[in-house]
Amino acid sequence: MKKILIIILPIYISAISLSHQEITQMVESIKVERAGLGLNILDNTPNPFAIEKKVVKEKPKKEKIEVKKVKVIKQPEEVYELTAILNHRAFINGKWYKVDSKIGTYTIKVIGDMSVILRNGRGEKRLKIKEREKKFKMFKGN
């Protein structure tokens, strides 16, 4: 409030000191018609408040991509034959293995009653015991 009074007070005091005739002369000088631009010129002028952004579109450069042909030689897949399972061990390709044993690129993860699951970084394999001709009958006890 004090700031407003400090600003307005000098203006008010100077206005009081002016005579009626001086104020009338000031108003008359404002009324004098001034030369300006015509409407036809104003219509063609750009908006002074518009912000123009120049967008430069660069054409994408075509890059040459070299394609190299590589021969992929498939190695024959390892063949595993599960012959037997006994006491949580599996007899594969003539050797006994237990869980977490390595066989080729695979690791034995599960040994079940009739099958074994092998895993490596690319996937898993399931080996099953092949059923043979039964020459005798097997009976389970009590």
Mind explaining what this structure looks like?
With 142 residues, the protein is of the alpha+beta class. The protein has a domain at 82-128. Helix content is 24%, strand content 23%. It contains three helices and seven strands; from the N terminus they run αααβββββββ. The protein has helices at 2-17, 20-31, 39-44, and strands at 82-86, 89-92, 95-97, 102-103, 106-111, 115-120, 123-128. The strands form two sheets. Strands 4-5-6-7 form a four-stranded antiparallel beta sheet, with no helix packed on it. The protein has a three-stranded antiparallel beta sheet with strand order 1-2-3, with no helix packed on it. Strand 4 and strand 5 (106-111) form a beta hairpin. The longest helix is centred in the first third of the chain and has 16 residues, at 2-17. The chain starts with a helix and ends in a 14-residue tail after the last strand. The model has no long low-confidence stretch (mean pLDDT 79).
C-alpha termini separation: 106 Å
Proportion of residues in helical segments: 10-25%
Q: Classify the oligomer.
A: single chain
The secondary-structure class comes to alpha+beta
- Helix count? 3
Amount of beta strand: 15-25%
Biggest sheet, spatial arrangement of strands: 4-5-6-7
- Write down the secondary-structure element order: HHHEEEEEEE
Q: For the CA atoms, what is the radius of gyration?
A: 50 Å
Mean pLDDT: 79
Shape: elongated
Largest sheet: 4 strands, antiparallel
Task: Identify low-pLDDT runs.
Answer: none
Query: Count the strands?
Result: 7
